[in-house]
Amino acid sequence: MRSTRAVDALRLNRPEIAVFVSGVASMGLDILAGRMIAPQFGSSIYTWGTIIGVFLAALSYGYHRGGKLAAERATNGRMARVFLLTAVYVAGLILVGDVLLRATSGFSLPSRVASLPAVVLLFGPPTYLLGYVSPYAAELSAKEGFGEASGHVYMLGTVGSIVGAFATTYLLIPSLGIDRIALVFGALSIAAALAVGRPIGRERVAVTGFLALLLVPAATGAAGYTVQGRARSSTRRRRRTSSFGSWTSATPGGGTSADSDTAR
Questions:
Q1: Which candidate, 140, 154, 100, places its Cα nearest to that of 123?
Q2: Is the dihedral of CA 35, 37, 43, 47 positive or negative?
Q3: CA dihedral over 163, 164, 170, 176, signed as positive or negative
Q4: How many domains does the chain have?
Q5: Of the four listed, 52, 53, 83, 235, which is most buried by Cβ atoms within 10 Å?
Q6: Could you tell me the residue range of the domain that residue 32 belongs to?
Q7: What tens digit of pLDDT does each residue of 38-64 get?
């Protein structure tokens, strides 16, 4: 009897699944941002401070907007839509992320904040969208009382963030390139949409299938554009690899620099 109750306590309903996955995806994208931004802007403390600040700001605004709309608009279907939109943006990162990085590196900004436009443009929107999930899930929670529901949502989101941080750092980055890590989070968002939004109508099936067809060729190098605007072949550039060690990266003003925090 006790074992059955323990299993039931660990079983997540659809809003809880949404919160957990949003935590995994948001923290995973946070760490992925550091790897994606580093070749162009370096990985100094200023770059990481910018990434963390932008992610927190985007999540906060998503929480704020989602909290205002939750009472009237919170449904499992709308949470599924949030994950599908996140997957769309991740597909865009894979396809044209290089072009956007090069475009934003041309802004005349002090070197310490040079990465800010790139981080905002590339990772602000999907993080903002994921911020909607927690207030929607709190509104739909089966827990009694607003305090218990909020605490449960915070706990699940934080546990998801811990899983996302460790999985990205110790599993994904050592074994996959940047595009394929992005593919993992895009696929995770699609899977969450399917799990949270069931039963699934024909329209959502069509959208999900289209996203899957878009993500896979992009992440395998069959589609996309280089920083010069040319179609990208299946041969990945060396900076797309996921090997550990110091990055030799282009500085915003041109030239290269061996990018290690100790040297700075």
A1: 100
A2: negative
A3: positive
A4: 1
A5: 83
A6: 12-233
A7: 888 888 999 999 999 999 999 999 999
